[in-house]
């Protein structure tokens, strides 16, 4: 099965809570998270394109509205660009930097947790 714009637009319309690639892949046979990720990286999807694909499916109601929000994508791209910049400056891979950041954070939390826990 080939993953298409229509698949993606239908998913965005039908999913009310979880918009992740993992969730989408779990609901499609023979479509992996990696295949969806590859598609989204290489395909130019704009809000206008999404609207063109779904506008005929929308029932107008004066008490309803649709919001297209790309803040999660923008935030993740900013983090990725920062990691890429750090990788370039330090001569490390992005994955090594992520690993070190997470390791340092976990060690810090084990030594001095931000959230106090009690055994009950």
Description:
The protein has 120 residues and is mainly alpha-helical. It folds into two domains: 1-62; 69-111, no CATH class. 60% of the residues lie in helices and 0% in strands. It has helices at residues 5-14, 21-26, 33-42, 47-54, 71-90, 94-111. Helix 5 crosses helix 6 (94-111). The longest helix is centred in the C-terminal third of the chain and has 20 residues, at 71-90. The radius of gyration is 20 Å and the shape is extended.
Features of this protein?
single chain, 120 residues, mainly alpha, 2 domains, 6 helices, extended
Topology of this structure?
Blueprint: H1 5-14, H2 21-26, H3 33-42, H4 47-54, H5 71-90, H6 94-111
Helix pairs in contact: 5-6
What would a concise description of this structure say?
With 120 residues, the protein is mostly helical.
Shape descriptor: extended
Structurally, the number of domains stands at 2
Low-confidence stretches: none
How far apart are the first and last residues' alpha carbons, in Å? 50 Å
Query: Could you say which structural class the secondary elements and strand pairing correspond to?
Result: mainly alpha
Oligomeric organization of the protein chains: single chain
Instruction: Supply the number of helical segments.
Output: 6
Report on the biggest sheet.
none
Please, what is the average pLDDT? 79
Task: Give the helices and strands as they follow along the chain.
Answer: HHHHHH
Proportion in helices: 55-70%
Beta-strand percentage range:
under 5%
Task: Report the count of strand segments.
Answer: 0
Return Rg in Å: 20 Å
């Amino acid at each position: 099965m080939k993953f298409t714009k229509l698949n993606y637009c239908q998913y965005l319309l039908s999913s009310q809570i979880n918009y992740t690639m993992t969730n989408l892949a779990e609901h499609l046979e023979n479509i992996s998270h990696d295949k969806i990720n590859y598609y989204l990286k290489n395909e130019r999807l704009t809000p206008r394109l999404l609207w063109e694909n779904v506008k005929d499916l929308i029932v107008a109601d004066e008490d309803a509205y649709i919001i297209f929000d790309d803040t999660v994508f923008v935030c993740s791209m900013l983090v990725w660009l920062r990691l890429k910049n750090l990788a370039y400056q330090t001569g490390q891979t992005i994955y090594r930097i992520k690993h070190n950041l997470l390791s340092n954070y976990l060690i810090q939390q084990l030594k001095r947790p931000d959230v106090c826990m009690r055994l009950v």
